[in-house]
Structure to design on (608 residues):
């Protein structure tokens, strides 16, 4: 079901913290990831949608129905908590059957449906186990099954993977995505892990200090961040103070670069973002053969970290240090920056 | 070593009481002489002790019942309430038994309830209310600790999001999850109520004196009688407190038919 937040404002009592003027629309069947550093208000948005908090201002629509004043139990939303919040005195299957129980589904039927749901998350063999005897990943699956079994209007996930170890986290990511696709269910996934967000979301919403900064596809968010904060939060970045010398020409601490300066007057200053993997590395100037729009500099390797698939290198260019990520395993003597890989932001700090 | 000495110091009087209750004669000797059960029989057949025993039992049970009925919603509400107020009340509850000792409460009762407007001094129910007031903080503290420890607020939010009504959440989630804490709090309250002296001594009427008060009188009589009467009280409160500490909180090994 479609979810719409219109001008939602909420502050925690006696504090200046909360979320402000949130306008957000999540389409039917879409997976929207909400990211931001801790305290940015991402969990608050989830609580408001779930109904654990009520906005002081604004409208929250589930489908076409305003629900901002309804209690959680009347919203029919599946919520998965960071701590899973499985009922400790119920077995896995009883946990999953619980939402059906409170809806008055007869015992036989609800147990069957719960078992079927457990089968879909690969846990039918653990149906009679108590949560404390299950591993973190298994508890997570039970929590997901419980949130999906009653065919909720939408699925709300609050940092569901943060308690799992790195490998399992990546596995569960795909599993969540698959379940979400199979059920065609509108999903909001709150996470502080930008990689997790980029990898599974249809769109990503970035929050800072309780305000929505950018809502975009993962690709746009990464390639065309709206502000420096977004650039900093999503992926790695070189952020370099610059001055616009003339149209399409900027001056950096290590030399001048070509880049589009649309919207910037000559003489104004700003910050450019260059992604580490966008910087090209070559052994020598002869090997570089730069294309049009690529500026080439001599460079020296300061630090070289081998990470397996890629190499993360700090190179010094005329006294300035740039972070570069490359698959190139050979010698490094020259680096190239193409104008398409540069994003220019107005000066903020 | 220090622990050992402390235990000796703690247990020796109790052991002597125990010995004394079975001794036939105990005058001017370190240990009593002879062996008999007749002190116990005498205590059991003493009408004022019989009455006091049942008064104490009634007061303890009534106190337990009321403490649960008030304490559970109170603890639950305090944990769900806004932060500032909760902290204030929690602190108040912690301080209450220390800042307002039973004697102070009792004097207040004497002044208030001996007036013509509230002529309830000396009634059993006033006794029960006094016990409720002085034992409630223990129950609430126990419950609040476990509500936090077991993450009950989030469990309840989960149940809420899954469609459970307030009543369903309370019966399916809150009560089962807290059943060990309720039990352990109850035994503590029971033990405290049975052994309570200060307050009861001041506000109990002649016909509803509790066991500890009648017990004090008996020390003016034969020592064997007093000892055995004390042992009865001791056994009662030890059983209650052992049950209290023995009730494992937060253990989910037992299966509860909640489905």
């Amino acid at each position: 079901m479609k979810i719409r937040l219109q001008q939602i404002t909420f502050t925690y009592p006696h504090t200046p913290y909360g979320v402000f003027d949130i306008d957000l629309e999540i389409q039917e069947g879409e997976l929207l990831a909400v990211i931001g550093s801790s305290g940015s208000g991402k969990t608050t948005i989830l609580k408001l949608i779930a109904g654990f908090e009520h906005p002081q201002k604004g409208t929250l629509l589930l489908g076409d129905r305003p629900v901002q004043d309804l209690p959680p139990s009347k919203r029919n939303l599946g919520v998965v908590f960071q701590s899973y919040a499985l009922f400790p005195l119920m077995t896995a299957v009883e946990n999953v059957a619980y939402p059906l129980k409170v809806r008055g589904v007869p015992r036989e039927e609800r147990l069957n449906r719960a078992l079927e749901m457990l089968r879909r998350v690969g846990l039918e063999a653990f149906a009679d186990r108590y949560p404390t005897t299950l591993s973190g990943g298994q508890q997570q699956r039970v929590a997901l099954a419980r949130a999906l079994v009653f065919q909720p209007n939408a699925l709300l996930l609050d940092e569901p993977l943060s308690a799992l170890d790195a490998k399992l986290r990546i596995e569960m990511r795909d599993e969540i995505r698959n379940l979400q696709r199979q059920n065609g269910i509108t999903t909001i996934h709150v996470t502080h892990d930008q990689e997790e967000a980029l990898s599974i979301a249809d769109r990503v919403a970035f929050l800072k200090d309780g305000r929505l900064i950018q809502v975009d596809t993962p690709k746009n968010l990464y390639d065309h961040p709206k502000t420096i904060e977004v650039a900093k939060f999503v992926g790695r970045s070189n952020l370099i103070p610059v001055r616009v010398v003339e149209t399409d020409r900027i001056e950096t601490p290590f030399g001048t670069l070509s880049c589009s300066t649309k919207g910037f007057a000559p003489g104004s200053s700003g910050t450019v973002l260059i992604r580490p993997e966008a910087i090209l590395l070559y052994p020598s100037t002869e090997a570089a053969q730069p294309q049009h729009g690529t500026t080439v500099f001599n460079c020296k390797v300061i630090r070289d970290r081998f990470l397996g698939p890629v190499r993360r290198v700090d190179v010094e260019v005329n006294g300035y240090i740039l972070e570069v990520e490359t698959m190139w395993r050979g010698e490094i003597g020259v680096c190239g920056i193409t104008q398409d890989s540069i994003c220019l932001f107005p000066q903020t700090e | 070593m220090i622990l050992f000495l402390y235990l000796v110091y703690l247990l020796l009087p109790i052991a002597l009481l125990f010995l004394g209750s079975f001794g036939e004669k105990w005058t001017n000797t370190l240990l009593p002489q002879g062996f008999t059960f007749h002190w116990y029989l005498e205590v059991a057949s003493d009408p004022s002790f019989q009455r006091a025993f049942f008064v104490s039992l009634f007061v303890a049970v009534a106190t337990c019942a009321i403490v649960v009925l008030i304490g559970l919603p109170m603890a639950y509400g305090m944990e769900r309430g806004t932060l500032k107020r909760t902290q204030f009340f929690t602190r108040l509850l912690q301080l209450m038994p220390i800042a307002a000792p039973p004697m102070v409460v009792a004097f207040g009762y004497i002044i208030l309830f001996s007036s013509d407007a509230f002529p309830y001094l000396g009634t059993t129910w006033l006794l029960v209310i006094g016990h409720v007031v002085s034992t409630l903080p223990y129950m609430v503290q126990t419950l609040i600790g476990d509500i936090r420890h077991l993450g009950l607020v989030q469990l309840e939010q989960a149940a809420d999001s899954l469609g459970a009504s307030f009543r369903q959440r309370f019966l399916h989630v809150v009560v089962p999850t807290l059943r060990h804490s309720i039990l352990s709090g109850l035994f503590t309250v029971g033990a405290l109520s049975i052994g309570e002296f200060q307050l009861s001594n001041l506000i109990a009427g002649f016909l509803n004196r509790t066991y500890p008060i009648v017990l004090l009188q008996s020390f003016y009589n034969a020592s064997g009688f007093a000892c055995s009467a004390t042992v009865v009280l001791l056994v009662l409160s030890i059983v209650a407190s052992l049950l209290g500490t023995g009730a494992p909180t937060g253990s989910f090994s037992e299966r509860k038919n909640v489905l």
